[in-house]
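Q: Got a minute? One more chain.
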Amino acid sequence: MDWVLLVGRILFGGLFVLSGVMFHLLKREMAVEYTRAKGAPLPELSAPLTGVAIAVAGVFVIIGLWVDLAALVIAAFLFSTAYWMHAFWKVDDPMERQMEQTHFNKDVALAGGALILFYLFQQAGDAIDLTIEPALFD
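A: Always. Here it is, folded:
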């Protein structure tokens, strides 16, 4: 059943590869402006840097290289994105507030999935097939 985990890794990691490359890097100016509009720190640096970080982490999850570390990078990105980019508690308009809360909840749930991946690969990485080097942390 390792192939089920591989398919899950491809679907999960693929989201971050695509987002990192297609938005953060290839649409860098748009990403920087969006980051600036949301009030996140250092938009000129944080938008492309997080793009590289999540794209690389996504590739690592997919290929099975240090999945535990990659999952922590993704979780850190998601928690910070939920806080800075989807601060629904700061929004007055009810429809916009609901949209931001939905995105906030999605990011927190995906971070939970990343933490599950971290735990799984940190605890049982050597027993998981279809990987290169599944865990960095012992």
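A: The radius of gyration is 16 Å.
Q: Perfect, thanks.
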